[in-house]
Amino acid sequence: DVQLVESGGGSVQAGGSLRLSCAASGFTFSSAAISWARQAPGKEREEVATLNAGGNFMTYADPVKGRFTISRDNAKNTLFLQMNSLKSDDTGMYYCAAREPWQTEYNYWGRGTQVTVS
């Protein structure tokens, strides 16, 4: 079975940092594009960052550019999101996602990890 399990969330003061991790299993992780998305209370889920299978092309949402870094470790089937200079607007549930080459959308999702910035 496909599984994506996030960890690393928590509460932090504005200006602080967190590193989220997502352990993947049940599919060929090294061939999959990966993504982090977040959902703030009362708002729709938004894509935060993406990284292609080769690890050489990434995209970031404008609000997080220059502060967040997405990365992957294919040997450990794990993706990461390093979040620096956190702001209160970054508060929300963070989800990791994966898309295999033949999929047109991110069909594999984790259950999320909460990030609270005060």
Distance between the termini: 37 Å
Quickly give the structural class: mainly beta
Q: Could you tell me the number of beta strands?
A: 11
Helix content: under 10%
Cα Rg = 13 Å
SSE succession: EEEEEEEEEEE
Strand content: over 45%
Number of discrete helical segments: 0
Mean pLDDT value = 97
Please describe the biggest sheet, giving its number of strands, its sense, and whether it closes into a barrel: 7 strands, mixed
Task: Name the overall outline.
Answer: globular
Uncertain stretches of 5 or more adjacent residues: none
Explain what the structure shows.
- With 118 residues, the protein is an all-beta fold.
- The chain has strands at 3-7, 10-12, 18-25, 33-39, 46-51, 58-60, 68-73, 78-83, 92-99, 108-109, 113-117.
- 0% of the residues lie in helices and 50% in strands.
- The radius of gyration is 13 Å and the shape is globular.
- The strands form two sheets. Strands 2, 4, 5, 6, 9, 10 and 11 form a seven-stranded mixed beta sheet that branches. The protein has a four-stranded antiparallel beta sheet with strand order 1-3-8-7, with no helix packed on it.
Keywords for this structure?
4-stranded antiparallel sheet; 118 residues; 0% helix; mainly beta
Summarize the structure in short.
This protein has 118 residues and is mainly β.
